[in-house]
Amino acid sequence: MLAARLVVSALLLWLLVTKIGANWPQAIPDPTTKTLAWLSGALILTFGGVVLSAVRWGAVLNALGQHPPLRRLLSLYLAGQFMGNVLPSTIGGDALRVARLSRENGEAPTTFASVVLERLTGWVVLPLITLTGLALNPGLRELGRASTIAFATAAGTLVLLAAVLGLTATSGRGIEARLEHNEGWRRFTSATRFGIQHLTRQPAATARILATAFAYQLVLIAAALMAARALGLPAGVGPTALLAFVPAVLIAQVIPISISGLGVREGLFALFLHPLGVPRSQAVALGLLLYLLNLVVSLLGAPAFAVGHRASPVT
Questions:
Q1: Residue 201, SS3?
Q2: How many CB atoms are closer than 10 A to CB 234?
Q3: In principle, which of 31, 145, 237, 303 could form an S-S bond with 233, CB 3.0–4.6 Å?
Q4: How far apart are CA 224 and CA 301, in angstroms?
Q5: In this predicted model, what pLDDT tens digit does every residue of 66-87 receive, in sequence order?
Q6: Distance between CA atoms of 237 and 23, rounded to whole angstroms?
Q7: DSSP state of 88
Q8: What DSSP character marks residue 313?
Q9: Distance (Å, whole) CA 16 – CA 19
Q10: Is the pTM of this model over 0.90?
Q11: How far apart are the first and last CA of the chain?
Q12: What is the rounded CA–CA span in Å between residue 188 and residue 21?
């Protein structure tokens, strides 16, 4: 699987680069003070997104009765980012977070459930942000294929989420019964049921989790806006355009066909932003820049990844 994803990533990037051809020079901004300021802001916001991710994870854990310190969750999150983005593997950073935290708290099912629920909040928030962006700016609904794909991605994600949640609530019946032999599916559905049962009894905690999830995604969109300004993208690529299109890209790039979304992310930015007057070379450059910003922040997790789990002394 890893080899196949490497091949797909390389192939997609090669197709994009070949299509752009000699237009690459216009994608590279002049190294002015203003450009560096925008890049610095984008980098700071990207790191802020990781912090908010840890806060979101902590809010889910608190709702499930676990109260690890935020500093520890941030360390685990950075270690997971390092493993998932710098050391691409078929395991991923989420598995690392579950393994290390569950060894510390002795609550493997609860820890697994917290990560599942944390990820599910993204599938609620991202499509809603895209639909909001399309609603706020009517012009974004008139971009032909770009508008259609963005809307279909958001609507399809909500439908898929509803279907998955419906399947987890119908244990032993229909499709879910035929999937019961799959250990991964059983763990996922059990974790989802466990988490939802807790959250339905804690509306205030659920609201905090969703508010943090919205804040996290909006910070990533703000980072994308600063990166766009650093690259000198046209003024048409404003806040509402990124509200509509960045979440759709974030949804699609997690499909496990390439490494860290390479190729998928850049191709979608070219699709979404070209109707707004953005040269394809700049759109691809935006995708690559966001990847590099995430990679730089992920490198901060190298010490946490290397140290690993320190077992508590037996008393």
A1: coil
A2: 14
A3: 237
A4: 22
A5: 999 999 999 999 999 998 888 7
A6: 20
A7: -
A8: P
A9: 5
A10: no
A11: 43
A12: 45
